[in-house]
Structures are given as structure tokens and as C-alpha cells.
Inverse folding.
């Protein structure tokens, strides 16, 4: 996916060039792999964690993948954000929505018992 080169170019402000060097289809695989690995580490570290602990991670992986898909056509105030920064910014709504969904499910299941 030339991910490292894309990161380097994005940090140098060359977001258009980072889009050109990266393979977007391979790049869309990364969020699922990364967020699965993070969830697995959290699951192993927290004994007795909520059974809905995975939801924020799934939500983040989804939002970041969508961020990658829209990164080639999205600008904010005329500034091209690129395939690194837009997906990174997509973590925030993914995490917020995932945490809300997790909390709602926990409350619903607790009420049901």
C-alpha cells in the first residue's frame, strides 16, 4: 500500500502526492487489522470486561475505512486533507458513536435482567 511513504509525504504537507503513491485498496484493509489488534490487546488486559467492549473498535474501523474511501475527494475550506489525515480525523466520530452504542447496549441489557 506504500503506507509509510504516504505517511511521510503527508507529514511533509504533500497530501496530493501521498494520494498518488498509495494503493487505496490495500490501505482500506489496514483499519480493520489495526483496530482488531487494539481490541484484542484490550480484551486480554481487562479480565471481566464488558462483552460489548468490541463496539467502539468496530465503529472506529468502519469510520476510518469510510474516511479512506472519501479521502481522495474531500477538502475542508479548500484544503485537501489526504488519505492519512482524513482517516485519522475519522477516528473521533467513530469512537464517540461506538462508545454511545456500547453504553446504550449495556443499559438495555442491564434493564432486561
Amino acid at each position: 500500500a506504500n503506507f509509510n511513504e504516504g505517511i511521510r509525504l503527508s507529514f511533509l504537507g504533500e497530501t496530493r502526492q501521498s494520494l498518488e503513491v498509495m494503493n487505496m485498496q490495500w490501505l482500506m484493509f489496514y483499519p480493520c487489522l489495526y483496530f482488531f489488534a487494539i481490541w484484542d490487546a484490550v480484551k486480554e488486559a481487562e479480565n471481566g470486561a464488558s462483552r460489548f467492549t468490541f463496539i467502539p473498535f468496530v465503529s472506529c474501523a468502519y469510520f476510518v475505512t469510510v474516511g479512506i474511501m472519501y479521502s481522495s475527494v474531500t477538502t475542508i475550506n479548500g484544503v485537501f486533507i489526504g488519505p492519512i489525515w482524513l482517516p485519522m480525523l475519522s477516528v473521533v466520530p467513530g469512537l464517540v458513536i461506538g462508545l454511545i452504542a456500547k453504553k446504550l447496549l449495556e443499559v438495555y441489557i442491564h434493564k432486561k435482567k
Q: What stands out?
A: The CA atoms of residues 9 and 18 lie 5 Å apart. The chain has six helices and two strands.
